[in-house]
UniProtKB/TrEMBL annotation, chain A:
The organism's taxonomic lineage, starting at the top: Eukaryota, Fungi, Dikarya, Ascomycota, Pezizomycotina
UniProt xrefs under Gene3D superfamilies: 6.10.250.1770
Disordered: annotated segments: 106-129, 238-261
GO terms under cellular component: CURI complex; UTP-C complex
Organism: Echria macrotheca
Protein name: Ribosomal RNA-processing protein 7-domain-containing protein
Biased composition (Basic and acidic residues): 113-127
The Ribosomal RNA-processing protein 7 C-terminal domain, residue ranges: 198-317
GO biological process: ribosomal small subunit assembly; rRNA processing
Domain annotation Rrp7 RRM-like N-terminal: ranges: 10-193
Sequence similarity: Belongs to the RRP7 family.
Domain of life: Eukaryota
From TrEMBL, chain B:
Subcellular location(s) per record: Nucleus, Nucleolus
GO terms of biological process kind: rRNA processing; tRNA export from nucleus
Record protein name field: U3 small nucleolar RNA-associated protein 22
Main subcellular location of this protein, as a coarse class: nucleus
Compositionally biased intervals (Basic residues): 1-11
Native source organism of the sequence: Echria macrotheca
Length: 319, 1126
């Protein structure tokens, strides 16, 4: 096998040999690029984590665990986070009323307490709908962050990667699937069948999730209402009172307000129509406008046709 | 006053072209007709010939021909056959006598005098030829001197014998003079067997350039000389024969072939008219010149007429219908002269060319001269004009101008004119292209069924007195029989139009006899009447006691032979009846044709005698006449489902509507709806339910979605409770991304096998989404996402129900629509395009050729509908034209302009077409993207749309070039070699994957899954119902792959059960600079073999093998093989 560069920029290149499959019996090599994790906003675990890009689309945490193990042995790997997992970490965030969400975001600084957070997480978990896939696919060329046991392991992994290039003994992808068959759900038809099965969850479980959600939702709504009520009376440090929805009367529905506005516009429109063509000058002006419009459109047509002529062939009868 | 200046302006004619056009525009007012005027002007410019270069040297040549013909040596009267034999011997030139040839014993004498009068006639002198004509012909006539003719020559072909003799003499001298520089041959003038002429084709001029056929590539200045030819036509002196004796009813060929007088009484209109026409060359030349002088626009109107006729396959020759440019010009000239009878006002010479054209079309569309003779000028000969076929009688020259026309070509012309009139009346559509540009005579696009007669049966020799030739005689019989059988009122008009296409007659060499014409090759085209074409029982006259009724029955029985039988009908008495056994319109028509032609003409009994074309497509799908019953059954199942839902009493909200949204419920799916229980999961038919407006919905998108789940659970439980045991319901989760999108659906499976998928519409959801897209305080990417969600919402709950309703309505209005849609979808499937198109888009394209069918009428069979839809796709320039469907029938012009403007605006914002590609607007949706984008992505993308156009183009080219010989299967064969990667799925596994059971291990991790199926009674799943299909497994797989390799690999797949997936690498993503977030899997450069990494921009290239290996791992056992182009 040809030799490739062992590094690109500050990334080390880790070639992984892919065992051939009956449906695609060619040998293939996948290349994962890795470096020390150095995100723009540093976190506590940066020193012992690796940043991987171009992970295979069928990667799972177990796959990466076995990969690291084949490089530096067992016991170094702690966990892995994929880029698409980070993105929708909190799907229930949308669960609160829009207004409430905004208020909470603006005024919830003081309300951070440890116990409450755990409580929330539990509630949210209960409201979550079951996933319909046994195993997600990654985006091709996607990234992942691997957390290792300690900073030394990072060093070791990078060294091992460099050694791989010298020894030409590339780690093999998917060994975990063989060793750990019970923990990695298979892909292929089983995976697709499982998806269909999971798409129809148990009705009771579904009902429970929905109920949990509505309980959570009601709770949030109440919290928001409370905050709103409090803010109505409380000037902030600059002495301003925030204007919030709902005053002495019941909170106005946005829908009703919109409806009212539409009606008002309609009324105005009707009034305007009644007054049209009332005076003679209006009529005359309109005629003039129409004539101008006619001329304008004629010009447009001509332009269009000259454009068509430039394209050629438009005016030749088909044979 | 307002009106005064306007009037004055109208009076002072400004001379420039623009001002003229502007004035026309001011008069007509509508935008489209202005465009029409401008476009025709452009067309006239484009097709006009530069005579000086195109016909270089033609005048000289004509002079030479003249002097050469003048050199004919006069001789004294000789017996005709002797004289003919003498020429043959001396010059080796046959005398082209018309059939029957003069017998040896006849004592006609021919003498010859020097021809003196020559003239060039036709479109060469009037300069009305166009570039796109098939061949450019200069007509040169010379007068047969009066002294060699006798007055009685009008009888029994004598004139024509003499004419042929003179012609042979001329050809002898011409061969002498031009034998080396030109090709000489005989031809029948306009296919008229009485009138042979000489055709002189100059050999390639100039030598250096070969005669080019593509003049349109050159400008007017650099035109090359054309491949013209010269026809030399002898003619009779005007007024030589007494016209009173040549009227249409006269019988002038009195001698039969064997000299018996049995056919003497039959009138010979064709012969008579030919004879009159022989004397009319010079008078008509004068008429045309006068018209040209009087009316400036006359010439251009003739050119327009020529193009219009040419695009519809009409021409002056008998085979082309006998109505060509000459007849058009003449009719127009006569109408301009004010030769009107009652009713038809003559035209004013101050009209413009387009107005003249429109007037002519109008005239042709109201005068059906096949049925009723049309007399121009004050008629004295009215009573003579009997049943001589189509008649346009010029009473000054006493000639039936339409004498070469046949009843069918007149009917066709009438029909075409009516269609064109419809275009011209519809100001909202493009009028120009269907009128002049599109070719409207392609058999497969024009006719629902075409039959070719391969064997002639036996000829009836005695009837041949009118000298039109055997083929014509035979065809006219076929036409009469078929017309009676298929399109007469008597049997309720199965066919709207029957057209017979005769084989063209070719020129033949001077030294040979004309080839005897063959009947094989006569083609009969039939246009169905879709409402009647499917009837299997034909009711004839009532079998009553009165003499009239008896006679009717007798006639009926004589025509239908043994097929006619008496039957009693409920409430309709006893009637003569014919019963047919076939089912589809096509088969019925074939059955009737075979039967009736066999009965009367003894052809059609053998399969080989008659070949039928136009049906292969429906066998391919296959389309059955019973299909519509299945679709109706699905519809009915849906109605009962809707009733079940409405009958639920405990729902907290009132049901407003349950609307179907899937192709199965609008007669538009390729596969028939599944209505019987099966053990393979199938995807239920989709519908949406909406409730009365309510304030109870929570004001949060996520909460609305959860509420919907609760609602679905409730509906499911209530349904199961109410119809215990007969209904099974499942709540399924969508394969979605976020919590604010629709989360769940309810699948309802009836015991009978029908299954439905229900989604809930909430009006507040739309309001919330709308608000969020307009909310400026929200981040941009969230707003974009919300906008996409809103589009999805509207598509699902607004557009799809409306669309389903629209298509269902049109399917009942156009019986052929359903089949056409399904064929078109199949075509998209076979070419692996369907994955990229919405069902609705394909349906709308098919619908378009039905509601805007120009230049024809709405298709009356699935085949024609499909072919025309293909042609539309090939012609449609989606880059600059929106597809506008006026589904309501009353779209205001302002809307159309608004749609066009919107497209223009999109193209300005997004010139690379990454968001908006194909633009389809209907009356309900004027945004234009409701059916061509899904989840914020263009569907199709530009690449795919381009591929669609390319495929449609090559398909319609094949259709055009191969004509009837087309093997329609070839249109449906995908070409796999264009794909870089081919993924073959394992069909068995794919099928098995569709079958899942509620008891299956949900994770798929079981060590050793229980082996099912060996013993049916031991299998725990026996008797258990399978789960419905949330989505097709291969579809789900492809969706995942598509997401994973977005922008790198483009996948192509046909129907959901297609097992071959094609893919193409994006050429722009092959190599790139390394960065953290790459769009796909890349490998470092240098891993190949050479060290070409000196180029700085590129340090990684696409890891193709790696990607395909990934796909193989994801697909697992579902993928059988992956092929990669190297």
């Amino acid at each position: 096998m040809a030799v490739g560069p062992s590094t690109i920029g500050d990334f080390s290149v880790l070639p992984i040999s892919i065992p051939p499959l009956p449906s695609f019996p060619r040998p293939a090599t996948h290349y994962v690029y890795l470096r020390r994790n150095a995100p723009k906003i540093p976190t506590a675990t940066d020193s012992r984590s690796l940043f991987l890009t171009n992970v295979p689309i069928d990667s799972t945490e177990l796959h990466l665990r076995h990969l690291i193990a084949s490089l530096v042995g067992n016991g170094r790997f702690e966990s892995a986070t994929f880029e698409d997992e980070k993105r929708d970490a909190n799907p229930v965030a949308d669960a609160q009323p829009v207004q409430a969400a905004r208020l909470l975001a603006a005024h919830s600084k003081k309300r951070k307490r440890e116990g409450e957070d755990a409580e929330r997480a539990r509630e949210e978990e209960a409201a979550r709908l079951p996933s319909t896939w046994t195993r997600p696919l990654r985006r091709s060329g996607g990234t992942a962050v691997v957390l290792l046991a300690d900073a030394k392991s990072v060093e070791q992994v990078l060294k091992a990667v460099a050694k791989v290039h010298r020894s030409k003994k590339y780690p093999t992808w998917g060994v975990g699937e063989v060793h750990d068959a019970k923990r990695i759900p298979p892909l292929g038809s089983v995976w697709l069948k499982a998806h269909n099965r999971l798409s129809y969850p148990d009705k009771d479980a579904l009902q429970a999730a929905v109920d949990a959600f509505s309980a959570l939702f009601t709770k949030r709504e109440q919290e928001a209402a409370e905050i709103a009520k409090r803010l109505r009376n409380e000037p902030d440090e600059d002495g301003f009172v925030t204007v919030t929805r709902g005053g002495r009367n019941a909170p106005a529905s946005r829908n009703e307000a919109e409806e009212a506005k539409r009606k008002m516009l309609e009324r105005q429109e009707k009034k305007r129509e009644e007054m049209a063509n009332f005076y003679r000058f209006q009529l005359r002006e309109r005629q003039k406008e129409e004539q101008a419009e006619l001329l304008k459109r004629f010009e447009e047509d001509r332009k269009k046709i000259s454009a068509m002529r430039e394209k050629r062939g438009k005016f030749v009868p088909e044979s | 006053m307002e009106s005064a200046p306007a009037k004055r302006r109208k009076l002072d004619h400004s001379q420039t072209k623009t001002d003229n056009a502007l004035q026309t525009a001011a008069v007509t007012g509508v935008s489209r007709s202005r465009a029409f005027v401008l476009e025709t002007e452009e067309l006239l410019d484009e097709v006009s010939l530069d005579y000086a270069t195109a016909f270089k040297g033609a005048d000289e040549l004509l002079h030479k021909i003249k002097s050469s013909i003048e050199s004919i040596e006069p001789h004294e009267p000789t017996q005709i056959t002797e004289a003919a034999a003498r020429i043959e011997k001396k010059h080796r030139v046959k005398v082209p006598f018309p059939d029957p040839r003069p017998s040896k014993s006849s004592n006609y004498k021919v003498s010859v005098a020097k021809p003196t009068q020559f003239n060039v006639v036709g479109s060469y002198v009037s300069k009305t030829m166009v570039k796109t004509q098939k061949c450019h012909t200069i007509d040169m006539v010379f007068l047969i001197p009066a002294e060699i003719l006798q007055e009685k020559d009008y009888l029994d072909l004598r004139y024509f014998y003499k004419r042929a003799y003179v012609l042979a003499l001329a050809s002898a001298v011409l061969q002498n003079d031009f034998g080396t520089t030109a090709d000489l041959s005989y031809e029948h003038l306009h296919g008229n067997p009485l009138c042979p002429v000489i055709v002189l084709q100059p050999q390639a001029l100039g030598g250096s350039e070969k005669p080019s056929s593509d003049e349109n590539s050159g400008d007017a200045q650099t035109q090359k000389p054309l491949d013209y030819r010269i026809r030399i036509i002898p003619c009779a002196p005007d007024e030589f024969f007494p016209k009173s004796k040549l009227h249409l009813g006269a019988s002038l060929v009195r001698k039969g072939k064997d000299g018996d007088n049995s056919s003497a009484s039959l009138p010979t209109p064709f012969y008579n008219s030919t004879l009159v026409a022989e004397g009319c060359f010079f008078p008509y030349l004068r008429v045309l010149r006068q018209a040209e002088k009087r009316c400036k626009a006359f010439k251009n109107a003739c050119i327009l007429g020529r193009i219009w006729l040419q695009q519809r396959g009409f021409g002056g020759s008998v085979a082309q219908g006998g109505f060509g440019h000459f007849e058009w010009a003449l009719l127009l000239a006569l109408l301009l002269q004010g030769g009107e009878n009652k009713g038809n006002a003559s035209l004013s010479p101050s009209l413009s060319s387009t107005q003249l054209f429109k007037a002519m079309v109008q005239f042709l569309s109201v005068t059906n001269f096949a049925e009723k003779p049309c007399v121009l000028g004050s008629s004295t000969a009215g009573e003579d004009i009997s049943d001589a076929g189509p008649v346009i009688y010029d009473s000054v020259r006493q000639l039936n101008i339409a004498f070469k026309m046949s009843p069918w070509s007149a009917a066709m012309l009438y029909q075409q004119a009516r269609w064109t009139r419809n275009i011209l009346n519809d100001s909202s559509v493009d009028q120009f292209n269907p009128c002049f540009i599109l070719k409207a005579d392609l058999p497969l696009q024009s006719f629902d069924m075409i039959a070719r007669l391969n064997r002639s049966g036996k000829f009836d020799e005695t009837a041949e007195s009118d000298c039109r030739g055997k083929v014509w005689q035979f065809s006219s019989k076929v036409y009469r029989i078929l017309k009676r059988a298929l399109s007469d009122k008597e049997l309720g008009e199965r066919a709207r139009l029957i057209h017979v296409r005769l084989p063209e007659c070719a020129p033949w060499p001077l030294a040979e006899k004309p080839k005897s014409p063959k009947v094989s090759g006569v083609e009969v085209g039939i246009l169905f009447d879709p409402t009647n074409a499917g009837r299997t029982v034909d009711r004839g006259p009532v079998a009553g006691p009165s003499a009239q009724e008896k006679e009717d029955c007798e006639k009926f029985r004589r025509f239908w032979g043994s097929k006619a039988e008496l039957r009693r009908f409920e409430g309709d008495g006893i009637r003569e009846t014919v019963l047919w056994s076939s089912a589809s319109p096509f088969d019925l028509c074939e059955e009737i044709m075979r039967y009736i032609l066999n009965l009367h003409l003894q052809i059609g009994a053998l399969d080989d005698d008659l070949t039928f074309y136009g049906h292969a497509l429906s066998r391919l799908l296959p389309l059955n006449p019973t299909d519509s019953a299945v679709f109706n059954a699905a519809r009915k199942a849906f109605t009962s489902f809707e009733r079940d839902i409405r009958d639920l009493e405990d729902l907290p909200l009132q049901v407003r509507q349950v609307a179907p949204i899937c192709p199965e419920l609008r007669h538009a799916s390729v596969k028939l709806p599944q209505l019987s229980p099966s053990n393979i999961g199938s995807q239920p038919m989709e519908a949406v339910i909406s409730f009365e407006a309510s304030g109870k919905w929570p004001e949060s998108l996520a909460a609305i979605q959860r509420t919907k789940i609760a609602f679905l659970l409730m509906i499911g439980n209530l349904l199961e409770e109410k119809k215990r045991g007969r209904v099974k319901t499942w709540v399924g989760l969508e394969d979605g991304q976020s919590d604010i999108e629709n989360l769940a659906f309810l699948d309802i499976v009836y015991e009978s096998g029908a299954s439905f998928r229900l989604r809930i519409h909430s009006d507040l959801e739309e309001a919330l989404l709308e608000r969020q897209t307009k909310d400026k305080t929200v981040e941009q990417h969230i707003r974009t996402r919300t906008a996409a969600s809103l589009a999805t919402f509207r598509r699902l709950y607004t557009h799809l129900p409306l669309h389903t309703q629209t298509i269902s309505t049109f399917v009942t209005r156009f019986p052929a629509l359903s089949g056409a849609i399904r064929l078109l979808k199949q075509w998209f499937n076979m070419h692996k395009l369907s994955y990229h198109f919405t069902d609705e888009f394909i349906e709308l394209v098919a619908l378009h050729v039905f509601i805007s069918p120009y230049p024809w009428d709405a298709p009356s069979s699935a085949n024609t509908g499909f072919f025309r839809a293909l042609r539309f796709l090939a012609h449609w320039d989606w880059r600059s034209e929106p597809l506008v469907l006026d589904t309501g029938g009353d779209m205001p012009p302002a809307d159309r302009t608004a749609i066009a403007t919107r497209l223009e605006a999109w193209r300005k914002i997004d010139p690379s077409m990454s968001h908006t590609v194909v633009f389809v607007a209907t009356a309900q949706d004027t945004t234009g993207v409701a059916y061509t984008s899904v989840d914020g992505h263009a569907k199709p993308t530009k690449v795919v749309a381009t591929r669609m156009t390319a495929l449609a183009k090559s398909a319609s080219r094949v259709v055009r070039e191969q004509g009837l010989a087309l093997d329609t299967r070839t249109l449906f064969v995908p070409s796999l070699k264009e794909y870089d990667v081919l993924i073959y799925l394992n069909g068995r596994v794919a099928k098995d994957t569709r079958r899942t059971y509620p008891t299956d291990d949900p994770i798929g991790l079981a060590e050793n899954p229980v082996k099912h199926g060996k013993f049916k009674n031991l299998d725990e799943r026996t008797g258990q119902e399978p789960l419905p299909l949330a989505q097709y497994p291969s579809q789900a797989l492809l969706k995942h792959l598509d997401e994973a390799y977005d922008g790198v690999l483009v996948f192509f797949r046909g129907a959901a059960d297609d097992t071959t997936i094609g893919a193409i690498w994006n050429p722009q993503a092959q190599s790139r600079k390394f960065k953290i977030n790459m769009p796909a899997s890349y490998k470092p450069v240098g891993t190949t073999d050479s060290d070409e990494s000196d180029e700085e921009e590129v340090d990684v290239v696409l890891n193709r093998e790696g990607i395909l290996a990934e796909i193989a791992r994801v697909g697992g056992d579902l993928i059988e093989k992956i092929d990669m182009k190297t």
